[in-house]
Specification:
Strand content: under 5%
Number of strands: 0
Distance between the termini: 38 Å
Helix content: over 70%
Oligomer: single chain
Order of helices and strands: HHH
């Protein structure tokens, strides 16, 4: 096994354990407003993720097919 693979795995595991901005927002919302506020924040976070992933999938389908769209985006 190449020597960089274990380093990559260790780094990936470490980064996966670190809390991100979404987790910090969730913790703040539950501490300030309780579970009701948290549910709204979770729904908004999930909706944003769905919108972002849908847009990324759409762009990944359109950009290779259209050089003009790629040039405009670039």
């Amino acid at each position: 096994m190449p020597t960089h693979v274990p380093v990559f795995i260790a780094t990936t595991l470490l980064l996966a354990m670190l809390p991100g901005a979404s987790q910090a927002l969730m913790i703040r919302q539950v501490l300030e407003g309780g579970q009701h506020t948290l549910r709204g924040t979770l729904a908004g976070n999930a909706s944003g993720f769905l919108l972002w992933s849908t847009a990324a999938a759409g762009l990944s389908a359109v950009l290779p097919a259209s050089p003009t769209a790629y040039a405009v985006l670039r």
